[in-house]
């Protein structure tokens, strides 16, 4: 079994255990809103938001760096 597949399988098993153990309903309050949801669903939502933000910022920084390199090369 390859290390990459083993890592993915391990993360999947850990995520499944996490979801099973965190089924309690919690109240999420933000400004004027109140939402009742399972704790595991809330964590999943927050992880997806964090991952999306990270990908967006990484892509933005890479485009910014590539643009800067293109400008530097055109001046040489």
TrEMBL record:
Where do the Lipopolysaccharide assembly protein A domain residues begin and end?
Answer: 21-65
* Domain of life (superkingdom): Bacteria
**TM regions (residue ranges):** 41-58
Do the record's keywords include Transmembrane? yes
Which keywords accompany this UniProt record?
A: Cell membrane, Membrane, Transmembrane, Transmembrane helix
Q: Report the GO terms under cellular component.
A: plasma membrane
Instruction: Give the protein's recorded name.
Output: Lipopolysaccharide assembly protein A domain-containing protein
* Record organism: Mariprofundus ferrooxydans PV-1
């Amino acid at each position: 079994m390859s290390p990459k597949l083993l890592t993915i399988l391990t993360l999947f098993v850990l995520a499944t255990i996490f979801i099973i153990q965190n089924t309690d309903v919690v109240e999420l309050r933000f400004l004027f809103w109140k939402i009742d949801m399972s704790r595991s669903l809330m964590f999943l939502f927050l992880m997806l938001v964090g991952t999306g933000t990270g990908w967006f910022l990484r892509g933005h920084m890479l485009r910014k760096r590539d643009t800067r390199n293109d400008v530097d090369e055109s001046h040489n």
